[in-house]
Amino acid sequence: MTDLIARSPAFGLTPVAYGATTLTEGPWQQLTALMPFAGQTARICTALQDAYGLNFPAPGRLTRAGHTTCVWTGRGQAFLVGSEPVQDLARYAAVTDQSDAWVTLDLTGEQAAEVLARLVPLDLSPRAFGADHAARTLLGHAAIQLHRLENGFRIRGFRSMARTIVHETADAMAAVAARAALD
Amino acid sequence: MRLTCPLCGARDRREFTYQGDAIMLTRPSNDDPTAFSDWLHLRDNPAGRTRDLWYHEAGCCAWLVVERDTVTHAVHSVALVEGEDAD
């Protein structure tokens, strides 16, 4: 029998560090896409409250309870992160396992926002993009989901784009670190 | 250029894909082949206000109707084609 070796989406690509900024692969978590059926958003909120104690997020937001997060990922779509989907959810929404399809990368350090400013066309100041904000946007040419961590940002991209996202981010990290070294 | 997506807020032009005149949303009946052909193929190219379809490809993936002015570049309105909830 062939002995297959399980590799994480960013295997061999991370960690990357320049100055005080670090790019690491985030923890593997169960990802489930929830797409509520027409007019079922209120019911999915009740089901999520019963199971995890959180609501279906409003556009551009995320909700948290314990180790479970629900991240808005588009019109009528959110990702349930970190918990198994309960059976009840499938009554009110299309439920799809996405766990192996995405790469999760954590960009941390004081200059994380300056690195992303070179790649992401969003205002990421704490005033405009707080702890409960979640965005779908671009990192260079790659489509990503983005939200804050305590000391940086969590980037979730298509698994097939892992190498591109790490490469682009590492280049921007190097440029920000080089500029900081000049000051 | 920035468009204010009703779901995502003000976003950079590069997140959007342009489709064309929003008249595509009002499909005429097939009874009159000439009218149907005109609707399908003939487009005005006005200097001034236009009403176009844009797709927020790198954002919420919603179709949007954008009213803007091709002379002044002012964006007058951005609206969802369908509701906030997908189905």
UniProtKB/TrEMBL annotation, chain A:
Gene3D superfamilies: Heterotetrameric sarcosine oxidase, Probable tRNA modification gtpase trme, domain 1. InterPro entries: TrmE/GcvT-like. This is Sarcosine oxidase subunit gamma.
UniProtKB/TrEMBL annotation, chain B:
It holds the Pfam family SoxD. InterPro entries: SoxD (IPR006279), SoxD_sf (IPR038561). Coiled coil: none annotated. GO terms for biological process: tetrahydrofolate metabolic process. One of its GO terms (molecular function) is sarcosine oxidase activity. This is Sarcosine oxidase subunit delta. It comes from Sagittula salina. The lineage of its organism: Bacteria, Pseudomonadati, Pseudomonadota, Alphaproteobacteria, Rhodobacterales.
